[in-house]
Specification:
binds 4-amino-1,4-dioxobutan-2-aminium adenosine-5'-monophosphate, single chain, eight-stranded mixed beta sheet, five-stranded mixed beta barrel, elongated, binds magnesium ion, alpha+beta
């Protein structure tokens, strides 16, 4: 290439670049205007009408996009006639595309407005069925439209960050992401919450947990994780149970219960500190101080179930050894804690058949639940896995589970078994804590609960 040619190419590149960044009519997001870079310049925005009022020759329209809200003034003499008529008539939630000048306007929310030169209605809206002060039931019936609300939008952004941070953490720690089945023939977490389905004439279930399949995959990949929906036919209405939730599960070869907890605390810390850094505005608007999350750094406290029982009894709880911890007990145990805590080594009666018996105390398993602070309760259940095939068979028999569907799982103990551990984290549980939500249903766009499967 000649020097001249290179020069020509580089100049053209510069010109094209300059034109690109200055091109009037290139769409920007509303939040980009608020930082002042576009002051006095022409901008183009796409979004939906959030509020609107008009007085004779002037319409004040608040437009929202995913990044925020902005006042747009549409003056009769500044836009084509059809645009003005369209703006005047358009109902809330109509979709719009507009061009205009971004100017400072102290009276407008946020201190900026766009003075429109063009205002096109893309999709007109009927009378929007959601207005202020609507019942929870009504909002759930119109969930497909209510997902446009500010709170749900913020929560979904936080959730997207949390999922991204989790995947990034796993990838950075030599875990392979795998894709287990959702339709299964065996229960992982007990028969009472199983959703049954007719699988070409035989009985099958929707997965409660990918764990057993992850266990199979450690024999090739050693450290694996999956993110799948899990299904629980939870028959009671609570603020922390969904019938369908997103389950993040890890499984690790050559790892015992204590190291399993170290993995979980590093993962949880990465998830919540990332969201504190990436979404501070969303968090603050939801009532969560990002500083609370930046404090979540390993190690987390580890107390035994035995200690938990003593603490509860000292606080006056009528709680006997052998009972499972309920919402109130979990809340009490984290009183005064800034970080999540592990409660480990639960009695066998309250946990699942696949956990490893504690060699030092056969009454309990080598397991741990992670409890979120502020009373949000269990966010992770994990354990070391039983490797003794006879013990597993004995437990399945004791609970009257036919062994047929479990033969493949038992094989994992027969062909080169190793010490291994794993855990399951409820994504909506962690989002509920991080976003300070009263009810878990607001951490998922389309909640599935005992009395709702639609929309
Ligand atoms: O404690 P769980 O039942 O443990 C398991 O499923 C294990 N097999 C996981 C594993 O070791 N791979 O469920 C794990 C987590 C809970 O700690 C909770 O966060 C969440 O899943 N979870 C639910 N989240 C929302 N709605 C429900 N109904 C949930 N049930 C469990
Ligand atoms: Mg559990």
């Amino acid at each position: 290439m000649t020097y001249e040619f290179c020069y020509l190419v580089s100049q053209t590149f510069i010109i094209v670049n300059r034109v690109r960044t200055r091109m009037p009519g290139e769409f920007v997001h509303i939040a980009q205007i608020f930082n002042g870079d576009h002051e006095g310049k022409e901008v183009a925005v796409r979004g939906w009408i959030y509020r609107s009022r008009s007085s004779g020759k002037l319409c004040f329209i608040q437009v929202r996009d995913h990044s925020g809200f902005m006042q747009v003034t549409v003056a009769k003499n500044a836009v084509p006639d059809a645009d003005f008529e369209g703006a005047k008539k358009a109902l809330l939630e109509s979709s719009v595309m507009l061009k205009g000048t971004a100017v400072k306007e102290p009276r407008a929310p946020g201190g900026f407005e766009i003075q429109a030169k063009e205002f096109k209605v893309l999709g007109v809206s009927d009378n929007f069925p959601i207005t202020e002060y609507q019942s929870e039931e009504h909002l759930l019936n119109y969930r497909h439209l209510w997902t446009r609300s500010q709170n749900l939008t913020k929560i979904m952004k936080v959730k997207a960050t949390i999922l991204g941070a989790a995947r990034e953490w796993f990838a950075g720690n030599e875990f392979f992401e795998v894709t287990p089945p959702i339709i299964t023939a065996n229960a992982c977490e007990g028969g009472s919450t199983l959703f049954e389905l007719n699988y070409f004439g035989t009985k099958a279930f929707l997965s409660q947990s990918a764990q057993m399949y992850l266990e199979a995959l450690i024999f090739s990949l050693e450290k694996v994780y999956s993110l799948t929906p899990s299904f629980r036919a939870e028959k009671s209405r609570t603020t922390r149970h969904l019938a369908e939730y997103w389950h993040l599960e890890g499984e690790e070869a050559f790892v015992g219960n204590e190291e399993n907890m170290s993995i979980q605390e590093a993962l949880v810390s990465a998830m919540v500190t990332t969201v504190a850094k990436k979404n501070p505005e969303e968090l603050k608007a939801l009532g969560r101080d990002p500083a609370d999350l930046l404090k979540i750094v390993p190690p987390f406290k580890r107390i035994s179930y035995d200690d938990a029982v003593k603490r509860l009894q000292d606080k006056g709880y009528d709680f006997a050894w052998g009972n499972d911890l309920g919402t109130n007990e979990e809340r009490s145990l984290v009183e005064g804690e800034d970080m999540p805590i592990f409660v480990k080594n639960y009695p066998k009666e309250v946990k699942a058949f696949y956990m490893r018996e504690n060699p030092e105390n056969p009454k309990v398993y080598l397991c741990a639940d992670l409890l979120a602070p502020e009373g949000y309760g269990e966010i992770i259940g994990g354990s070391e896995r039983e490797t003794d095939v006879e013990k597993i068979i004995e437990r399945l028999k004791a609970q009257n589970t036919p062994l047929d569907a479990y033969q493949w799982y038992l094989d994992l103990r027969r062909f080169g078994t190793v010490q291994h551990s794993g855990f399951g984290l409820g994504i909506e549980r962690i989002v509920r804590w991080v976003c300070k939500q009263e009810h878990i249903r607001d951490t998922i766009p389309f909640p599935r609960t005992i009395n709702r499967v639609n929309p």
